[in-house]
Amino acid sequence: MPTSQSPVTLLKLRASAGESPNAPASSQVYETLRARIVSLELPPGERLSRAELSDQFGVSASPLREAIQRLERDGLVATFRQSRTVVTHMDPDLLQQEHFLRTGIECEVVNALAGMADKSVLKKASAIIRMQRVLVEDPDQIDLFRKLDEDFHYELFAAAGYLPLHLFVTERSSQMARLRSIDLPSEGKLASVVEGHEAVIEAICSSDCHAATDAIRAHLSGTIARLPQIMARYPKYFASEASRKLGKEA
């Protein structure tokens, strides 16, 4: 499971990854809490004390409330009576829908890239693959590997000219992001991710639209295909069938 990092440390990591230190306080708190939830440092079912968070981040109630509202829209937290805020459990139905959304959009992204004459726009994505290949045998660098994985897909959207869509997909794929955090440490998973990235780039560089869409679909489908096994191993991370029918946390 992920190692714990302080909010201040994570804020610095977000800044080094491109998050402006001058961004609104609510955005910085949101990004940091989202990273902690997605990495499972804050696991499903964890209660979030607003008073403690306000002290940790050194912010007033207003920006913290705005950050939590954004997390609620992402489906990562739920707020109940008396402002009790809890990290949500993952819903298998929502996971399938998020996978459907992301796969459909990224298939169109790589299809567009395969049809472009200028492949030089893929230099950054290719460089990321080389860095990931170095990290495959170093499980201690899994957080960096995860960040590079996110960067790879970001660069595909950027190269195709669809960056606004990347934000759209990211905000609507929070459940899948958590599922990938569970699956990533699995034996052989890191190598499989790199091989998937290589297959996508190879197909794009060959201007083979069909192969590119097949490659990205296969690459994105590995984790969701293992959902039953992951649920069996980590049942406490998932909402029960009864609670899903009621539309609330168990």
Strand and helix layout:
Blueprint: H1 7-16, H2 25-38, E1 47-48, H3 50-57, H4 61-73, E2 77-79, E3 85-87, H5 92-114, H6 123-135, H7 142-160, H8 163-171, H9 174-183, H10 189-205, H11 209-225, H12 227-233, H13 241-246
Antiparallel strand pairs: 1-3, 2-3
Helix pairs in contact: 1-2, 2-4, 5-7, 5-9, 5-10, 5-11, 6-7, 6-10, 7-8, 10-11
Fold and architecture overview:
By secondary structure, this protein is mainly alpha-helical. It has two domains: 7-87, Orthogonal Bundle (Arc Repressor Mutant, subunit A), CATH 1.10.10.10; 92-235, Up-down Bundle (Four Helix Bundle (Hemerythrin (Met), subunit A)), CATH 1.20.120.530. Helix content is 66%, strand content 3%. The protein has a three-stranded antiparallel sheet with strand order 1-3-2. α2 (25-38) packs across α4 (61-73), α6 packs antiparallel against α10 and α7 crosses α8. It is globular and about 55 Å long.
